[in-house]
Amino acid sequence: MPDFVGAVDQGTTSTRFMIFDQGGNEIARHQLEHEQILPQAGWVEHNPTEIWERTRAVIETALTKANLGAGDLAALGITNQRETTVVWNRRTGRPYYNAIVWQDTRTDRIASALEREGKGDVIRRRAGLPPATYFSGGKIQWILENVDGVREAAEAGDAIFGTTDTWLLWHLTGGIDGGLHVTDPTNASRTMLMDLETLDWDDELLSFFGIPRRMLPLIVPSSHSEAYGRTRPGGPLAGEVVLGGVLGDQQAATVGQVCFDVGTAKNTYGTGNFLLLNTGTTPVRSQHGLLTTVCYQLGDQAPVYALEGSIAVTGSAVQWLRDQLGIISGAEQSESLARQVDDNGGVFFVPAFSGLFAPYWRSDARGAIVGLSRYNNNAHIARATLESICYQSRDVVEAMRQDSGVALDVLRVDGGVTANDLCMQIQADVLGVPVSKPVVAETTALGAAYAAGLAVGFWKSCDDLKQNWQEDRRWEPRWSQDRRDTAYATWKKAVTRTLDWVDVG
Fold first, then answer.
1. I need a labelling partner for 437 at 20 to 30 A (CA). Which of 8, 172, 277, 499 fits?
2. Does residue 238 carry a pLDDT above 80?
């Protein structure tokens, strides 16, 4: 068997390809950003064709860097931004519209109407999700209703839908020449269209959005040696490689962090924050604003479920300091600026740029900086921004404890913000539990590689993967309980100041 596994990590701001060995060590990578298209307030789009071109380029370049070819890869996995919605023509391969990104809020009226009409509880019970702009169902409905010709093409079977995993898989397996139209349960569970129990599209849920069933991909296990086919010769891999695994990005990070035991949890710090808690083979229905989602399904085994807290704006709040306010020149400078002060000086920043996601689910919220006085300066703003990442994560941890009865012993972390030592220390202080970072911080790509490698026997079992996990850093909490409680209570007060800002009909 070849010595390596490859993974495409198609994210919100960039696409990368990474190559791993059997020890889970990185051998090579290449990464390219793609354009963020912002047509109007609340709208966020990507160009699907650009994403496919970037995917081709990063695969080719990473293989060249490592002096490897398709024959050196035992399997290929894909992980992706999950709810982002692409609708394209299966005969021409051309998208009907830009990809509508998970952050996009144009479907707020669709989500509100579902609640008014009493359909929200059905969606929660069957799909494990609240009606929200976040998920794919409303985005598909918007394209069907607003882009000329798509409704007719969908009824005829020509217009098909996919999240970006499906879009890339279709191209990698042949595109208009027999490309496979498939997805996995972790991505399908983010649409508001899949029944969590049956792992199949639900006709009643489809009727809520007016979506023809024939638009949707086949749902197959997250790790499987045959379901995803092989790459086509002549593509970016220039040879046949088994496509062994697909996982939505946050579920992939959970697998990469080897959270295979019930009660283990990880938090990924990226554009947003995503905290997942493994709840085992029985879905736990949240009563406190979390999502019930499929964590993974390996081969013919029963699906494993998770509670998830999705936070829209965390790392992107640091980007806002750089791009919109101009008070830092790069993300790493947020730490040095924040270290110029000992605390936040009474300033709290709630970055509700796209409303508030878990556990609040308030599309009417907008960002607010509160507690300002003449004393405060840009260092306090920078510190409040880092703290906002940590307080939003605590909101989710509290909801998970209430839903599951599980109190965390440690939080495993990954993603770009974990390079910020101050932010991770604040996270431990705010939570009151240790924060642990693995040696391989790119756990999203690693999880996709693990899913693909398990499918073909490159790794024999999840126990093999647990042997690969090693701790790199650990942050222990330093705050007193009184300080922790007082600060968190003030944060909760700050959140109330963001609500009821936008009228949602």
1. 8
2. no
Binding residues for ADP: 12, 16, 271, 315, 416, 420
Annotated binding site: which residue ranges? 12-14, 16, 82-83, 134, 249-250, 271, 315, 319, 416, 420
Does residue 359 have a cis peptide bond before it, meaning omega lies within 30 degrees of 0?
A: yes
- Cα(364)–Cα(373) distance, integer angstroms: 27
Query: What's the pTM value of the predicted model, to 2 decimals?
Result: 0.88
Binding-site positions for sn-glycerol 3-phosphate read 12, 82-83, 134, 249
Torsion of CA 443, 445, 451, 454, to 10 degrees: -90
Distance CA 3, CA 20 (A): 9
Quickly state the pLDDT bin for 181 (edges 50, 70, 90): very high
Taking only the tens place, the pLDDT of each residue in 353-397 is 988 988 998 888 999 999 999 999 999 999 999 999 999 999 999
Distance CA 355, CA 77 (A): 33
Binding-site residues from annotation for glycerol = 82-83, 134, 249-250
Whether the CB-CB separation of 205 and 123 falls below 8 Å is answered with yes
For residue 505, what pLDDT is reported?
58
Q: How far apart are CA 136 and CA 100, in angstroms?
A: 9
Q: How many CB atoms lie within 10 A of CB 150?
A: 21
Q: Alpha helix (H) ranges present in 67-197?
A: 108-116, 120-127, 136-146, 150-155, 164-172, 185-188
Residues that constitute the known binding site for ATP: 12-14, 271, 315, 319, 416
The residue assigned the tokens 């990954």 is 414
* CA gap 223, 75 in Å, rounded: 11
